[in-house]
Structures are given as structure tokens and as C-alpha cells.
Specification:
The complex is a heterodimer of chains A (148) and B (150). Chain A has 148 residues and is mainly alpha-helical. In chain A, 55% of the residues lie in helices and 0% in strands. Chain A has 5 helices and no strands. Chain A is rod-shaped. Chain A starts with 13 loop residues before the first helix and ends in a 7-residue tail after the last helix. The longest helix of chain B has 21 residues. Chain B is mainly β and 150 residues long. Chain B contains 1 helix and 8 strands. At the A-B interface, helix 4 and helix 5 of A face strand 2, strand 4, strand 5 and strand 7 of B.
């Protein structure tokens, strides 16, 4: 092998050399004006996100206010909601558990009140009496399915 | 092969206890009936309401009846789930709006049990709640006493 063949002298035109040089020249720095415009656009875009969060915050607040208002202005003169979950309906003292104290509380209410409140109609027969107390008491002692 | 044998052992271990539980009692095993008296001691506080749970820890026991208290305020049969009568676990509760309420140690209920076999039954009592005349929870203790076999 001839070593002379390893060094090849490329003969190129002057124009080609210029073009090639310009291709690999370091790029020009971004002008401050363009840089500022890019930064402003980014800032505007980022500013939009807090607005979205604020909107979500107000929506959640409004929903919570509606729930609170619904509870506060609930009409307690209406009959008990028979379609409500049984455990919730029988929890007379609202302590989160149905036990004999709920039946006892209902019995004392019925005994001490002259007028029957349909809210205490636990069995849905439109009459408030001992049967409603029995309904709650039986719910308290009911064995859970699958336990036995 | 080993895997199959291991799998069969696991399946049998899971199924056998259930089967044993549902099997009818051996006709040759002795059967007796005995009461179980339940006492609640509310101390100085009058007892107006109670709820407890009874579980059988040992022995083959079936609850066949529930009777009220010796005290007039709870003389009627308490509330209980009749479905529990065929089993060895029951929740019992009662309340009274009477003016005269028991205080101190009072027999508040008696359970009538059918005991099969020679194993002496053992029970666990859990007092869920006890309350005074205003419906306020009050401290109380619950105990049982085995009655004489009938």
C-alpha cells in the first residue's frame, strides 16, 4: 500500500469553502429584544395557571357552601326518608353507631312530646309509636350478615 | 406431583373447619339445657339502657331462649335477633323509661342454652353500652353466672 494515498488533498472551490464555513460558524446570540419577547410570552403563559387554581378553589368553596346550606335549611318536619340507608336513618343520636341508645332516645322523645314528629316515623307507616322504637332497637341488635 | 399434594392439603385445610362447624351434632353426644344469668353492675347510677354481645368461646352451645330481668324495669324480654338463636353469638339490648330503675348489680337477662357434648362451655361478654335515665353513657361492668343444668 502506498502511504501517499492516505493523504488526499481535496481541491474545492472558494464558494464551497465559504458555504461550508458559514454552516459550522457559531450561531449568533439572540438579540435582547427577541429574548425579552420570549420571556414575556412565557411569563404570560405561567400566569394563567394560578387563575385556573383560583377558579377551582372558588368552585369547591361554592359546592361546600351549598352542602352546608342544604343541611342547615333541611326541613325536619318532613317524614323520615325511608329510602335513606337504614344505618343512617336509625342513628337517632347521630353518634355514628346504631345501638340501643338510639331506640332509647326515640322512646324518650315520643314519650315527652305531645305532638308526633313525622321525622320519627322510622318504619314508614305514617304513625309515630312504639313500633318505630322497636324498629330502631331491632336494627341495633341485628346480627351482621356473614358474621355467624 | 408435590405441588398438587400441597394444593390439596391447602384446600382441605380451608374447607374442613367449615364442614366441621356445619355438621350436625353427634346423636350419641349428651345434650343438656342450662341457663346463663347475665348481671350488669352500674354502681350508684340507675341503669336505663344496656346492650351487650355474648360469644361462645368453647363448647357446643345453642341459644334457645332469652328471658328478661328480675327487676320490673327490664322484666320484658330484651331485644335480640331471633336469627341468632340458632347460633352461638347474640346481641341483646333493652331500655326502660320507668321511673324506678335498677342500680348496683342486677340480673338483667337470662339466656337458656342447649349444650351438646362434654366440653364445658366458656363465654365472652362485651358490654357495648350502658346508660342512665337521661341517655348518658355510664360506666358499668357485665358478668355472667352459669345456672344449674335442667
Amino acid at each position: 500500500m502506498n502511504p501517499k494515498n492516505d493523504k488526499t488533498d481535496f481541491q474545492t472551490s472558494e464558494q464551497f469553502s465559504k458555504d461550508l464555513s458559514s454552516l459550522f460558524e457559531p450561531k449568533q446570540a439572540v438579540s435582547p429584544r427577541v429574548d425579552r419577547a420570549v420571556m414575556d410570552a412565557a411569563a404570560r403563559r405561567l400566569r394563567r395557571r394560578p387563575n385556573l387554581r383560583r377558579w377551582a378553589y372558588w368552585a369547591a368553596s361554592a359546592a361546600a357552601a351549598m352542602v352546608v346550606a342544604g343541611v342547615l335549611f333541611m326541613d325536619f318536619t318532613k317524614p323520615a326518608d325511608i329510602s335513606a340507608p337504614v344505618a343512617l336513618r336509625n342513628d337517632i343520636d347521630r353518634d355514628g353507631a346504631v345501638n340501643i341508645l338510639d331506640a332509647f332516645a326515640l322512646a324518650r322523645k315520643i314519650k315527652s312530646s305531645d305532638t308526633a314528629n313525622l321525622q320519627w316515623d322510622m318504619n314508614g307507616d305514617s304513625v309515630v309509636d312504639q313500633k318505630d322504637v322497636d324498629t330502631v332497637a331491632m336494627a341495633a341488635v341485628k346480627m351482621k350478615e356473614g358474621v355467624l | 406431583m408435590k405441588k398438587t399434594a400441597l394444593l390439596m392439603v391447602c384446600v382441605l385445610a380451608a374447607v374442613l373447619p367449615q364442614t366441621a362447624r356445619t355438621e350436625p351434632a353427634d346423636m350419641n353426644e349428651p345434650v343438656r339445657f342450662a341457663p346463663l344469668h347475665i348481671y350488669i353492675d352500674s354502681g350508684q347510677a340507675p341503669l336505663a339502657a344496656y346492650q351487650f354481645e355474648l360469644k361462645t368461646l368453647a363448647g357446643q352451645v345453642r341459644i334457645v331462649g332469652v328471658e328478661g330481668s328480675e327487676h320490673a324495669a327490664f322484666q320484658h324480654a330484651p331485644y335480640y335477633d331471633t336469627a341468632a338463636l340458632m347460633n352461638d353469638r347474640i346481641i341483646i339490648a333493652a331500655y326502660s323509661t320507668d321511673a324506678e330503675l335498677p342500680a348496683g348489680a342486677t340480673r338483667i337477662a337470662t339466656l337458656h342454652l342447649q349444650i351438646t357434648g362434654d366440653i364445658e362451655p366458656d363465654y365472652e361478654l362485651i358490654l357495648t353500652v350502658a346508660a342512665d335515665a337521661d341517655g348518658r353513657r355510664t360506666h358499668a361492668t357485665i358478668t355472667y353466672q352459669k345456672g344449674e343444668t335442667e
